[in-house]
Design brief:
The protein is α+β, with helices and mostly antiparallel strands. It has two domains: about 1-430, no CATH class; about 435-555, no CATH class. Helix content is about 60%, strand content about 5%. It has 25 helices and eleven strands. It has a five-stranded mixed sheet, with helices on one face. The protein has a two-stranded antiparallel ribbon with strand order 1-2. The longest helix has about 35 residues, at about 415-450.
Length: about 550
Amino acid sequence: MADLQTCPNKNHLAKLVDWYRRHPYGFLVLLTTLTLAPFLAKPFSMDDPCYLWAAKQIQAHPTNPYGFNVNWVGSTQPMWQVTQNPPLLSYYLAVAALIFGWSEIGMHLACLLPAIAVVLGTFRLAKNFCRWPLLAALATLFAPDFLVSSTTIMCDVAMLAFWVWAVVYWTEGLRQNIYFKLAAAGTLAGMALLTKYNGASVIPLLAAYGLLEKRSVGRWALYLLIPVAAFFTYEWLTLHCYGQGLFSAAAHYARSEQSIFGTSKLLAGLNALTFTGGCFAAALFCAPFLWRQGMLTLFAAGAGLFMALTLAGGIMAKNYGWITGNIGLGVVETQMLIWTTGGVSVLALAVADVQRNRTADAGLLALWVLGTIAFAAFFNWTVNGRSLLAMAPAVGTLIARRLEQNRQTQPAGIKYCILASAALALLVAQADYQMASANRKGAEQVCTKYANLPGRVWFEGHWGFQYYMQAFGAWPLDVNHLEVKPGDFLIIPEKNPNTAAPDSRISTRVDTFALPIFPGLATMSLEAGAGFYFSRWGPLPFAFGNIPPENLSAYAIQ
């Protein structure tokens, strides 16, 4: 392939090049597996426990995935009220656990398959859209957003796997008039929305491509009824089972959370651009080969102006006032400017591709990118890496198309841009890994110290910390039904949602556990302004700086 043949030292890479040319999909399977292998033992983190608990429920009660109670926000609630995603991934995990077991390695092995499917789907899509599909696949694999998301057992990567293959079969089916592929695309689109609610966004995307490609509504549109039927069937089943349609409930949750946090549209737009630039860093690293110097200067100036307008009037201090001396607003804002420039570059890729080509393919990619950013900024309950992940294949394909349109052969330097993105993505994934490890280690330490003492060990806080605290025998505190007694202990993580220090009149702090995490880089850090999973924690998808340790406090109840 041309995109490998331009590499130097071809004598040393001859066998690899030959193997790739003969078995490109095998090459990508191996590369993806080797890239993710170091993270297979990653402790469960963030919302992973919700998918695990639902999967275990499914093994016992296959027709009632959310028919149990859970304390996830500080009080016990039905799981169907807590979860904001459909259960298809949990069904998959329930089956996978029969083979691999419930260990971290077993569950991550199960989730390796969707990650491979995304990379292969990107390659197949880009192969139909440009001459350098390997570049698109590598830009996707080594996007920090994709790599971090692939080290979780949440639904985002699985949803994207169904999404990208739905687009592959839909575009091929329309071009070739093969209705079997259109039916497969409709089925995959339905599975995407049953994996994550925003997977429903692929339906209008497919419809738009059909209109752009065929210029009229035809028989092809009937196949979009497959995912529509899946949507209404799921809504009806959950209404019958739980008394409320869960898709509607998730939409209501998003609106209510937006009203609670009250983030301005300008700040949400800025967060979306900043996260886009950081999550898909290859667009910035490759920018010197994609744009003229004057355009890069214009992108940076535009990003700076938009930041200045958005942050005027002390918006940063108002929304992120906790970012103080440890890191400093100036350091955070400098990183924001860099990644916002990258976000502008991603937008420009989509717009420039449409302006130059004016084809159905260009329209599809532009709508894919612009629609995902708009959803993350203005419709989702928060801006985060997970809500932007859906456009990873489109961004990778746009990079390859832009480079192809600018040059007849790939410049040798482009490989260094991909290597830079890979290095960043691996560092960010490792930082996220060590954050998860700190939570598991902290849970193990406090439970080992206090579990054998008289009294029960209670805890506040959730995410992966909750999973391991319960696994080690501690009990989640229910603020609506307090059962703590003198002689009990209460463990509170310093950086975790839904926590509050206990009344000093009935408790005494007896210990503090400091848990070092990855030095100099974090995906979730209030002090550093990192909020990969939740932009209300910080305006950066990941942050460089002096990252303080995770702290746990132990209180004795009197």
